[in-house]
Specification:
nucleotide-binding, 2 domains, globular, 13 strands, translation elongation factor activity, 40% strand, Elongation Factor Tu (Ef-tu), domain 3, six-stranded antiparallel beta sheet, six-stranded antiparallel beta barrel, Elongation factor 1-alpha, Transl_elong_EF1A/Init_IF2_C, mainly beta, GTP-eEF1A_C
């Protein structure tokens, strides 16, 4: 095999393709009120692009407004792309209306929505005792931190193949994987892992 020195190997690396062709998804990390500017949400762009003039919708609150400007490291951007940590100024929305855990999307291109319930694969890594229907832990999904009820444990599955090993199990325990229907205690934005991976995975605490 052909050998390369470290510098050559690093130079040969191709940067990963950024998912700019997908609809806009930007989970909010913080929201600030800046004197003379107004309301400035901040977060990391996960998919799509964000430009001044974009009409964004904040889900799950369903608040729509126009983006006046986009900044990264105190420099104005004409276009933000996935991976960029940006602040963006929005029109006619107060700081109190927005919060960490909301998702900004393009109102005209597959906008994000809140989920009343969702089905997910859950792997129990470490938990004392059994988990059964009705268990309500806190989920950390993107920047949201919301209690969700295990409404129905539908199937116990093989962790490697994903195939069902038991229908409607009474409980699951450490080491088990299961398909579970979850109901958030308040509106939550989640997406399918296949479509938007950063918004389709979560940790249960």
């Amino acid at each position: 095999a052909e050998r390369q020195c470290l510098i050559e190997a690093l130079d040969a690396f191709q940067p990963p393709a950024r998912p700019t062709d997908k609809p806009l998804r930007l989970p909010l990390q913080d929201v600030y009120k800046i004197g003379g500017i107004g309301t400035v949400p901040e977060g990391r762009l996960e998919t799509g692009v964000l430009k001044p003039g974009t009409i964004v919708v904040f889900a799950p609150a369903n608040i729509t407004t126009e983006v006046k400007s986009v900044e990264m490291h105190h420099e104005a951007l004409q276009e933000a792309v996935p991976g960029d940590n940006v602040g963006f100024n929005v029109k006619n929305v107060s700081v109190k209306e927005l919060r960490r855990g909301y998702i900004a999307g393009d109102s005209k291109n597959n906008p994000p929505k809140g989920a009343a319930d969702f089905t997910a694969q859950v792997i129990v890594l470490n938990h004392p005792g059994q988990i059964s229907n009705g268990y309500t832990p806190v989920l950390d999904c993107h920047t949201a931190h919301i209690a969700c009820k295990f409404a129905e444990i539908k199937d116990k599955v093989d962790r490697r193949t994903g195939k069902s090993t038991e229908n409607n199990p009474k409980s699951i325990k450490s080491g088990d994987a299961a398909i579970v229907n979850l109901v958030p205690s308040k509106p939550l934005c989640v997406e399918s892992f296949q479509e938007f991976p950063p918004l389709g995975r979560f940790a249960v605490r």
